[in-house]
């Protein structure tokens, strides 16, 4: 960017606030993407270092545009998407149980941040900044508040073995790892709904996921092929293997944590495949597995966590298999 271009509007140029500069310095690639997409942000490169400056917003529209662009390229996008269904969880819990869920949310965040600080100090790095997403997703997937000891062990295991032991690069969603650990280690701990076929459907909870899904889809953070494939796989399996007194195929979408698990857990970027063909097959497989687990298991568990776990483990294989097939066709 030339000197004359930078000096055309000197009064409209202000340095970004401290929290934004810290975010940019920690995520240079994302900030370049932010700078390229936003008409209100410019970047200046000096001796290999990129300095970000923002244009002074003159109108409320400029402020709204700048705020939206910042949220779109920040980890808070997922937090905003998870807020409506989490609020519905609090409402459904009632005044007596909602504070316990809120305390579990605070504990999960504290555990994740503490482990991040420990590993970051050992490696000489700054802690990760996505502990809130982990805590919100873990708490949201719980059908009801659970015991403190089990939740403490589950969140510690999920964050450490889902992210930190791999150098901060998650191979599966840490919340998914934590939930799977809790379900297998404490089968009677209330981490998964049992007798799901006779449970009361929650239409409000399913509908509350739609605003977040639209928000993530607009930001390019939600692979829609996985969602469509999961819905198709679940519907086809429910129609093919229907049992007496079982819910209708569409009722499975509002039973348990199906909508939450598909949109925010199975479709998470840590678990999802990268290629388009693999995402279709991955979505169909996860949706079919959820219904199969619900209908075939005598305990009739929710099945979303186990299906997402199996799908996430097979995601790299699906990418490699379909890429190889496409390459040699």
Low-confidence stretches: 1-55
Average pLDDT level: 80
Count of distinct strands:
3
How would the global form be characterised? globular
C-alpha termini separation:
46 Å
Instruction: Give the helices and strands as they follow along the chain.
Output: HEHHEEHHHHHHHHHH
**Percent of residues in beta strands?**
under 5%
From the helix content, strand content and strand pairing, which structural class follows?
mainly alpha
User: Main beta sheet, described?
Assistant: 3 strands, antiparallel
Gyration radius (Cα, Å) is: 22 Å
Helix content: 55-70%
Report the total helices.
13
Lateral arrangement of strands in the main beta sheet:
1-3-2
Total domain modules: 3
Question: Helices, strands, pairings?
Answer:
Blueprint: H1 3-6, E1 13-15, H2 18-26, H3 28-37, E2 41-46, E3 49-55, H4 60-72, H5 76-123, H6 131-141, H7 148-162, H8 174-185, H9 203-218, H10 224-240, H11 258-266, H12 276-296, H13 304-328
Antiparallel strand pairs: 1-3, 2-3
Helix pairs in contact: 2-3, 5-6, 5-7, 5-9, 6-8, 7-8, 8-13, 9-11, 10-12, 11-13, 12-13
